[in-house]
Amino acid sequence: PPRFRNVSELIRKVLPKETFNLLREIGKIADREGVNAYIVGGFVRDLIIGRENFDIDIVVEGDATEFAKVVGRELGAKVHTFSRFKTATLVFKDGTRIDMASARTEVYKFPGALPEVDIAPLKKDLFRRDFTINTLSVKINYSDFGKLIDFFGGLKDIKDKKIRVLHSLSFVEDPTRILRALRFSVRYRFELGKHTEKLLKMAVEKKLFKTVEGQRIYHELKQILLEDNPLRVFLRLEKYRLIEELFPGLRWNREKKDTFERVRKLIIWHRINFPERKTDYHLVYLGALFFKEPLERVKSYLSSLSFPEKEGKKLLKFLDEIYGTYRALKSSNLPSEVYKTLRGREEEFLLLLAALFPDVEEKVVNFMRDWRFVEPLVSGKDIKELGLKPGPAFKEILNRIKYEIIDGRVSREDREEQYSRLKEMVVGKVSPSN
Ligand code: ATP
């Protein structure tokens, strides 16, 4: 029988007050509408483990789309429903999002059979999931709020630090779970259960990835690369001989592992210093993974994993241009030359460049940290006042001032100094015949 425990205080502690109150309100509405509602999946897992997670997924025993509409109306949230899957997303005024899905109520053994009513729809729904640690749920109906429900021993597996599948066919049914198992095992530092590991190895031997839609593999690969330490996951992929499975012919050697480690450090630095810059960090890892591989091979990886078109193009462009950029940087002696080479380049490209070529890392990092932000204190207005007619020369002169600031030949803060330098340049332009 499932074991229960109440985690409502724990939820109160980890969630913003408004979100917690929202859940209480949703619980009230569930009571009134006569449906059972549960938080499920990753949120509950991370609640118990103690990892931050604000992604709330709710499963409703009943029609989630109908329920979501009522909740949206009463609590003032926008509701997006997907009737085909009987799911809905609620977006509240403060930006909080909550996903809702319907537990499948009727399951027929064969056409025309009676629905099995003896098993709770929630339990059936959870049984379709990947690992026991992801099958925990918390009831949010008002009177039962916070009741933890553990049908499949997820709580014990969290305590034992084990990743376990729910049944022997799990990996065969969906081989992407292999990738998920390794990802979660690295993230939480959990081991695979003994039986689970055996099943995983057997599934790998069957070469089941060939049967999986490319974009599902792509999705899981991306998830791996967005983890805190993708290298660790890749070392496990290597251990279970999955690199060759996913990327036939790819070289996965010391050099690439070192680059992965360097990418990781650069990303940590980047996250701290440029949190506001939207950056596709997984692209940096992909660049590192595919660097030096023949272009045709890379293209075949991209197509077999159905990479999004834009992303694939961007990656190919990076790989095509990066060595040339490195050569240019290597022969750049002045900061302003580095600046000219790197300005306008994508964040991901810069990070990849620094990771692949340690001997120019300092130049790239200085560019990212400092040089790219240099702006002269003088402007076109000053040039005009000095008697030059507006034209393309303006931009050129201001750029030259900028380069001199970057190279430290003109002070960055001293406007007077910049102005007199500007004057010298303008006077040179304003010839007597002008
Ligand atoms: P993360 O912290 O990485 O977001 P998550 O568990 O929330 O982890 P999702 O990939 O968003 O991960 O999945 C949500 C839920 O859906 C999971 O808890 C899991 O139980 C279930 N799930 C996802 N993919 C599968 C799959 N391939 N097979 C079975 N269940 C899956």
From TrEMBL:
It comes from the Bacteria. Transmembrane segments: none annotated. Belongs to the tRNA nucleotidyltransferase/poly(A) polymerase family. This is tRNA nucleotidyltransferase (CCA-adding enzyme). It comes from Balnearium lithotrophicum. The lineage of its organism: Bacteria, Pseudomonadati, Aquificota, Aquificia, Desulfurobacteriales.
